[in-house]
Amino acid sequence: MLRRALLCLAVAGLVCADAPEEEDHVLVLRKSNFAEALAAHKYLLVEFYAPWCGHCKALAPEYAKAAGKLKAEGSEIRLAKMDSTANEVEAVKVHSFPTLKFFPASADRTVIDYNGERTLDGFKKFLESGGQDGAGDDDDLEDLEEAE
Fold first, then answer.
1. Biggest distance spanned by C-alpha atoms of the chain
2. Residue 129 to residue 6: CA distance in whole angstroms
3. Does residue 28 lie within any of the structural domains?
4. Short name of one Pfam family for this protein (predicted)?
5. Tens of pLDDT along 76-132?
6. Which residue of 14, 24, 36, 55 has the fewest C-beta atoms within 10 A of its own C-beta?
7. Residue 104 φ then ψ, to 5°
8. What secondary structure letter does DSSP report for 19?
């Protein structure tokens, strides 16, 4: 009986091994679970960062605060982060750190660059506007799907 229970736990661990972890309410993505996270969450704001980047370190507390607030409110919007020095998603253009991109569920599957204030209020305005307030250039999610 104990062996069967341990086997079930081991199999469950293998199935869930690549599910995104969570740090301070922020999903931690890797190249191997990036597509899964996009499929699982209707609206996803992703910070592409480098561990050595001072701007990324400065952003972390405010980003975590926004993630916690959204989660507490039961929002469909989730915040995530990906270490771009260890995980490269070819179709996602990252030229500097941190780079923030919004992946909304929409008919045209457009990816929206976030260039607004790096504050709780800035994130809130951007996300409540559907990615309009504080947006930069758009990318097509089809490019992401073709790269996989």
1. 57
2. 48
3. yes
4. Thioredoxin
5. 999 999 999 999 888 889 999 999 999 998 777 689 999 999 999 999 999 989 888
6. 14
7. -85, 150
8. S
Strand order in the sheet with 99-104: 21-23, 26-29, 77-83, 43-49, 99-104, 110-114, 135-140
12 within some domain: no
CA dist., res. 36 & res. 122, Å (int): 27
**Domain-located, residue 14:** no
* Residue 7 covered by a domain: no
Tokens 């341990």 found at: 6
Domain count, the chain: 1
Residue 91 half-sphere exposure toward CB, CA atoms < 13 A:
16
**What CATH code is carried by the domain that includes residue 43?**
3.40.30.10
Q: How far apart are the first and last CA of the chain?
A: 42
Domain holding 139, by residue range, is: 22-147
Nearest-angstrom CA–CA distance, 16 and 119: 33
pTM of the predicted model as reported, rounded to 2 decimal places: 0.80
Nearest-angstrom CA–CA distance, 147 and 133: 29
Give the amino acid at 10: A
Q: What is the pLDDT at residue 139?
A: 59
Residues in the chain: 148
Distance CA 40, CA 58 (A): 28
